[in-house]
Amino acid sequence: MASGWDPERDAPADEDIASCVACGLCLPHCPTFRLTGRETASPRGRIAAMRAVAEGEAEPDGIFAAMMDECLACRACETACPSGVPFGRMVEAARAQVEPRRPAALRATRRLGLAGVFPRRRLMFALATGLGLAQTIGADRLVPRRLRRSSPRVSLDELRRPLPRSQGTGPVAALLTGCIMDVAFRPVHRATLRLLARSGYRAVVPDDPGCCGALAMHNGQPEAAREMARARIAALESADVIVVNSAGCSAHMKDWGALLADDPDWGPRAAAVAGRVRDVIELDLTGGRVTGPVAVHDACHHLNGQAVAGGAHRLLAEAGADLRHLSDGGRCCGAAGIYSVTQPEMSQALAREKAAAIVATGAPVVAVANPGCAVQIAAALADVDATVRVAHPVELLDEMD
Ligand code: SF4
Ligand code: SF4
């Protein structure tokens, strides 16, 4: 089956489950276990539940779904695991496994949002315009607080101004403009394009460079993620390098080869494109001077998914920043895609810890290279009246000469 739902494929693989030896070394690194102390909220407990379902001893029922939904998919356990258990793809598969058994209304809502709205650029722009208008006149105060906290600020002015389609000369670097990034973080895109042009690339915005499908994949919609991957691959594959400035998206796109491996037409194209995906923080960029203290929040999908978090530190240090490291050991901020909406208590507990770690550095700015983390951290800092600016590393490199 080349596309569509496949209950055999969209479930944790037996060999992945078998690779866990239940040693528990991952437990202290798991944010949900640390906050709850529950084995069922630990990587080992979740894998035991996957094994029970795989062996037919349990059903992928509501209890199983709750265990998987409470996971942040931060992959800190994957980094800590000495046995190389690929927990990230296992929890994605487990969520795909439970999706057909979720209540019909919930399933329809999730599918509408993740597969119906995010891939449709015009619809995203229309919704973002509505949100921007509501924020301008203060009408957004009418929506529930947890939704408001998870909504990015939208600039109507930015939405109206198109991104430059091509600038600079050199190897072609195509920017994934994405979904949320394209409507709420356009200054980051403009800074990325300028920096790429300054750094010896022809920076281009291709036709149809929308959602990569990461959010769908993380939330039990693999067939929608495959559709989005095919559309993006067709738009991006002529470029020499595909540049992504959102940690969750770059981590997901590097796995496109595996996502489409069963598809004889698209699998080789997916693998070729995935091999040319670079998170912007991995590149050598020619930026301006960055002066003064800068704290750096490492997104989980930089730290754990790709092990490239050092790139942001390197770029900012080379630019002259006085780096202030967070004392929280790179813990998840609790944003995790739609987690801040679906699991608000756990999410906000983690956000409070992150805000405290940032404030403790004394830096007036924190560099954050993922849109979900940026929204979450800005809300958490506002909650404690901290006047710390949240900026993408490329914005800092681009603006300070
Ligand atoms: S996931 Fe890895 S570290 Fe955690 S219990 Fe299993 S083998 Fe041990
Ligand atoms: S992905 Fe994160 S939250 Fe989920 S089990 Fe692993 S460490 Fe815990």
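^ iron/sulfur cluster complex. The chain has a mean pLDDT of 92. The radius of gyration is 20 Å.
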